[in-house]
C-alpha cells in the first residue's frame, strides 16, 4: 500500500504543476488533492507504460518513467490524503 | 465556452462512474467535482482522439467518441462547477 508520508518526500517534480497542496498551478493541469489513490496509480502507470498520449503526456511520461510501483503508490497516497 | 447547465443534461452516462455530484462511485474512477475545466476538456479530447489508452480507456474512448466539442466544453464546465 502507499505511504503518504513517504509520498510527500517524492513529489518535488509533481508540485511544479500539481502544487504541493494538490491544487494545480495552472488550469490545464488536474487538481490532485483528494483524488482517488487507485485512480492516480492507474493514471501514473498508464503514463509510465506509454499508454497515455495527448494532453500533457509529453511531460508526464518521462516523469512517470522514473517511478517505481512503490513510488507511485506513495505519491498517490499523498495526493489522495490532501483536502480538495 | 462551456455551459454548466447544458452540461448537467449531458452527463447521464458519466454519472454511472463519476457520480452526478462528481464524486466517483468507485475508487478506480477519478472524482471530477471541482476539477479544472481546461484539463477535463483536454482529457476528454485525448480519449476521443484515441490518444489515451490504459486505465479505463476501453470505457472512456467510446463515451468520448460520441461527444462534440461543445458537449465536451459543457460537461467539463458542469463537473468543474461542483464542490469537491
Topology record:
2 copies of one chain form a homodimer.
Chain A: H1 4-8, H2 12-18, H3 37-48, H4 57-65, H5 69-81
Helix content of chain A: 40-55%
Structural class of chain A: mainly alpha
How far is the first residue's CA from the last residue's CA of chain A? 22 Å
Instruction: Please tell me how large the radius of gyration of chain A is.
Output: 11 Å
Mean pLDDT across every amino acid position of chain A: 97
From the 3D coordinates, which CATH architecture of chain A would you assign? Orthogonal Bundle
Taken as a percent bin, the fraction of beta residues of chain A is under 5%
Q: Assembly type of the shown chains? A: homodimer
Which geometry of chain A do the CA atoms define?
globular
Classified by CATH, the class of chain A is Mainly Alpha
Give the strand tally of chain A.
0
The CATH superfamily title of chain A: Cytochrome c-like domain
- CATH names the topology of chain A as Cytochrome Bc1 Complex, Chain D, domain 2
Biggest β-sheet of chain A, characterized? none
Amino acid at each position: 500500500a502507499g505511504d503518504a508520508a513517504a509520498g510527500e518526500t517524492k513529489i518535488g517534480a509533481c508540485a511544479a504543476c500539481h502544487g504541493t497542496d494538490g491544487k494545480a498551478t495552472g488550469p490545464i493541469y488536474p487538481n490532485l488533492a483528494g483524488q482517488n489513490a487507485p485512480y492516480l496509480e492507474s493514471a501514473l502507470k498508464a503514463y509510465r507504460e506509454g499508454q497515455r498520449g495527448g494532453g500533457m503526456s509529453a511531460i508526464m511520461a518521462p516523469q512517470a518513467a522514473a517511478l517505481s510501483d512503490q513510488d507511485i503508490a506513495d505519491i498517490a497516497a499523498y495526493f489522495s490524503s490532501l483536502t480538495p
